[in-house]
Amino acid sequence: MKISISKYLTLLLILLLLITGYKSYESNRATQNLQDNIDNTFKYQLSNVLSSLSMKVNDYTYRSILASVSNVASLSELTSFEDNNDNLDITLNNLYISLREERSKDKVLSRIDELREIFFVLVQDPTSKEATDKLIKITNDTFFNVKD
């Protein structure tokens, strides 16, 4: 009788191990799908920024630029691109702040051609450290070094 019980327990443990392994696989796959969706949404938002920067700037398009940059800045920390480009989230957030603040808004907008080129690169490759470094330079030149 003890042999039968041990066989059943062994079979039960093997079955539980298989179920646990399968659930772990499903969980990892769901996590990867979620990460892929976040990355794709981020790239879409980057293209929205590029699209907004491609329009003639007026009050309406300025709000569109501001909203697009805000969206992309809020998503950037969640992306897998942040693993390869650590300054991406901070830089996009600083650009948003630079655009939002009256004292630097016009200086940032005067460099819209540069921003358009940078976001063109970021749409193609969100891990581009060169593009991120250029954004850092623009925000430093226009916001963080502006005298009140």
Question: Strand content of the residues, in percent?
Answer: under 5%
**Individual helix count:** 7
The total beta strand count reads 0
Task: Report the principal-axis shape.
Answer: elongated
Order of helices and strands: HHHHHHH
Helix-strand makeup class: mainly alpha
**Largest sheet composition:** none
Helix content: over 70%
Mean pLDDT: 90
Low-confidence stretches: none
Distance between the termini: 88 Å
> What is the CA-atom radius of gyration, in angstroms?
24 Å
Folded structure, characterized:
The protein has 7 helices and no strands. The protein has 148 residues and is an all-alpha fold. The chain has a domain at 42-144. Helix 4 packs across helix 5 (102-109) and helix 4 (88-100) packs parallel to helix 7 (129-144). The model has no long low-confidence stretch (mean pLDDT 90).
Write the layout of secondary structure elements.
Elements: H1 2-53, H2 59-76, H3 81-84, H4 88-100, H5 102-109, H6 112-124, H7 129-144
Helix pairs in contact: 1-2, 1-6, 2-4, 4-5, 4-7, 5-7, 6-7
Pick out its properties.
148 residues; mainly alpha; 84% helix
Brief write-up:
With about 150 residues, this protein is mostly helical. The chain is about 85% helix and about 0% strand. It has a domain at about 40-145.
